[in-house]
Amino acid sequence: MKTLLVTKQTAQPAKWHLIDADGVPLGRLAVKAANLIRGRHKAAYTPNFDNGDFVVVINAEKVVLTGKKEDQNEYMFFSGYVGGETYKSVKIMRERRPDFLIHHAVKGMMPKNRIARRMLTKLRVFQGPEHTHAPQSPQKIKV
Question: What is the dotted CATH code of the domain comprising 16-65+94-141?
Fold first, then answer.
């Protein structure tokens, strides 16, 4: 049996997927989105080649966190200066930037390299139920 490696010539065109985050746990949504972006759902998955699809996430403010994570978990930001560390709780981040929660979770589930940073540009997160990618006609995915 021959191993199939994907190249630019043999790669399938990228598809568009739509995920509704309303009532979905954050971790489950992030795993599904990361696997679609990386192309792990395809039979011809190659780790060192960007063969993934585009993912559009809507209703980002309605994503669910189980347990006491809403109050206990914090995000750390560093300005680069001495004493420039700031911490913000999930509750504050959900009020200010609900799309950040999903971006941060998906980014954490991607490999830490150049290809993954390029793949992460295929993730589009919207706060409300409307999105700007209707012409691409994304397929609705159940999480």
Answer: 3.90.1180.10
